[in-house]
Amino acid sequence: MPAPNLALLLTIARMVGTGSERELGSGEEPRGAGLVVGVLERLADIGARPEDSYDERLRAGALILASVGIALISFVWVLTYLAFDEPLAAAIPATFQVVTLVGLVVLARTKRFDIFRTTQLAGFLLLPALLQVALGGFAASSGMVLWAVMSPLAALAMLGVGRSLPWLVAFFLVLAALTALDPVLVAGDPAALPERLVIAFFVLNISGLTLGAFVLLGYFVHQRELVHAALEAERERSERLLLNVLPEPIADRLKRHEGVIAEQHDEVTVLFADLAGFTEMTADMDPRSLVGLLDEIFTSFDALVDAEGLEKIKTIGDAYMVAGGLPSPRVDHAEAVAHVALAMRDDVARIASSTGSPLSIRIGIDSGPVVAGVIGRSKFIYDLWGDTVNTASRMESHGVPGEVQLTERAADRLEGAFELEPRGPIQVKGKGPMQAFLLKEAVESRPPERDATG
Questions:
Q1: Model pLDDT, residue 447
Q2: Is the pTM of this model over 0.85?
Q3: Which of 9, 104, 111, 435 could form a disulfide with 66 if both were Cys (CB 3.0 to 4.6 A apart)?
Q4: 113 and 59 in contact (C-beta within 8 Å)?
């Protein structure tokens, strides 16, 4: 019967080639799926409007394809019933053929797909019922009304739960009416179809209904899997974006809604780096070249920081801030930051040489206690506060281009592992005279351990 063809075609079409799958980036569609989707897209053009979404066009194409297929298959029913001298039963599927043809013409002219959909779903619901009446009841028609259940199921697939409920109610009303009418039909003049044909139709009806219900259920399961995959992909994207802003342990706490996140860290090394003379260079650079150069430099810095397991705190203009020893403590925080500082210095020298630009970098380092926390609501930032942060910034601003300058307490933590050059006391704004050192080279490889507990 016609209704299961709608359910089958609509469900298979949406399972093998939906807009949701394309949005998920599921890859190249199988050849058969692409063919089905292509046919549906072309059929959808009959009644398509510019504002229709891709999913709406697929559903429209599926219903049109189903309707055309049903109209063609109906010739079998028409000829079968005419062969057994049942002209009234034959006239019912013939009427559906006419209604479908007229509906397609109206759809092409008016683009009112809602009208076409309603008339087709009504036909799917009423056609089996009318055939059952014409053939003389449940037994004589081989339970033809079984096919009508596919009307609310097809409506569910196309319209969703809420809008398909009236079709479900209509099905039960039709079923109740046929049940009440059945004694009258049996007592009348049922169709004199051969017993084998009646049994064959019973098998066909039950098998077709089972297949249609299975395919529809498979559709819903498939859609649930697509939604789950989409949510999982979105969660992973959000996770990556969050980790670009916050350290992973802090991000985990933020996702648990722990309120204000603030921590005291007693052993941290902070690095500030600034591109010396970069502001003057920008006057002679076009925007694309300017941003491209900064991107090359900071991307190189990011790779160094990630390789050492440090935390990039932020960039401001052409300044770059890094910290070691937080949010998770580590015993070699000063050494790790020192290695990154030397690599930064070398990378900037390499980039300056390759581009022919007078580019150099000043780096300042200090070690000590800091307060770390998350501020902001709509835009989060993980930042540091305290004298160690301010002093590291002063070491950079009072430093020498092409050199890494550090405080005495930072130098004490690196003694023996790095070559240090005393610079003597320097006058630091807001601090007065301070002993400063220049970091030259690593003396030996540091131990691989990073966790303060091990």
A1: 46
A2: no
A3: 9
A4: no
Measured between alpha carbons, how far is 232 from 336 in angstroms, rounded to an integer? 35
Q: Which of 132, 75, 121 is nearest to 98 (CA)?
A: 75
Q: Domain 248-442: what homologous superfamily?
A: Nucleotide cyclase, GGDEF domain (3.30.70.1230)
Of 187, 189, 154, the residue nearest 1 (C-alpha)? 154
Closest CA to 114 of 63, 80, 66: 63
Q: What are the pLDDT digits (tens) for 136-182?
A: 999 988 888 988 888 898 788 788 899 999 999 999 999 999 999 99
Sign of the four-CA dihedral 337, 339, 344, 345: positive
CATH 3.30.70.1230 region(s) of the chain? 248-442
Distances in Å between the alpha carbon of 305 and those of 312, 313, 322, 341, 439?
A: 7, 10, 8, 10, 18
Q: Name the phi and psi angles at 331, rounded to 5.
A: -75, -25
- Residue 125 and residue 354: Cα distance in Å, rounded? 76
Half-sphere exposure of 321 (CA within 13 A, CB side): 20
The answer to whether the bond into 194 is cis (omega within 30° of 0) is: no
Structure-token match 């921590």, residue found: 263
- CA angle centred on 153, ends 114 and 113, rounded to 5°: 10
**Residue 415 DSSP symbol:** B
Cα–Cα distance between 123 and 96 in angstroms, integer? 7
The neighbour count for residue 271, using CB atoms within 10 Å, is 29
SS3 196: helix
Place of tokens 């900037």: 348
H helical segments located in 138-261: 150-159, 161-187, 195-245, 248-255
pLDDT of residue 10: 38
| Contacts with 61 (C-beta within 8 Å, 6 or more apart), sequence order | 13, 39, 40, 41, 42, 43, 44
